[in-house]
Design brief:
By secondary structure, this protein is of the alpha/beta class. It is 47% helix and 16% strand. The longest helix has 29 residues, at 101-129. It is globular and about 45 Å long. The structure holds nicotinamide-adenine-dinucleotide. Nicotinamide-adenine-dinucleotide binds at residues 12-13, 15-19, 37-39, 60-62, 87-90, 110, 137, 139, 182, 184-185, 187-190.
Amino acid sequence: MIDLSGKVALVTGASRGIGKSIAAEFSRCGARVALVARNREALEAVAAELAGDTAIFSADVSDNEAIANLIKDVETALGPIDILVNNAGITKDGLLIRMSEDDWDSVQAVNLKAAFTLTKAVTRGMMKRRNGRIINITSVVGLTGNGGQSNYAASKAGLIGFTKSIAKELGSRNILVNAIAPGFIETDMTADLPADTKEALLSQIALGRLGAGDDIANAAAFLASDLAGYMTGQVMVVDGGMVM
Ligand code: NAD
């Protein structure tokens, strides 16, 4: 069992899906967890399921002003943040030729810019304490590209470049920055994909099954723990052998 006791973790997009699984795993490992998403009721339901010390914060991560207050509120409630997981993400799929500027901008705002804003906001304290972990949830499509997802793939590829750059900037302060690239994980985000698309994806997965939130949560707990103390700037692909 991974030990995160004494650590404070902030997980964005913790109201469901992968973020909920990560928050639950961190809580099981002993961390105090700040659950962040827009929907307060959904966050309350998640917090009620978790046995450990948690606090909920309703915020839109693409709202820059809200982020400054969010970090202050989390640190007042739980203490200095040791671990940040930039997990909140959205899709607005479509072929380039039909993609609106808003479909492009909103995906960059939530998937990429919010990671910049949140990471910058927690980094000052982490630098002073010479301790920190940042985990960015990217996607295999950030590595491979995907027709119909140019906005999403660009945001996820951007997150990989961001991860590697700040890993280089912050390594000397003992702040370790890594990304996890999930493959096809069963969540609300993927629930509406047509059956034939799911079949086609499944045929590309060496392990022959879709992933679960816990598959990603286990990787996140490892990256947040002392066991990953010599890893930074990496993209950990957790996809059942879909992309090799
Ligand atoms: P999901 O749609 O089930 O959950 C997304 C979470 O992000 C929700 O809690 C939602 O409330 C939150 N969120 C969205 N916009 C927000 C905003 N503006 N402010 C605050 N919170 C916001 O999605 P998921 O499948 O759990 O995906 C989680 C992450 O994993 C995303 O970054 C996604 O791109 C990535 N990912 C998912 C898959 C997959 O197959 N499900 C694959 C690769 C990567």
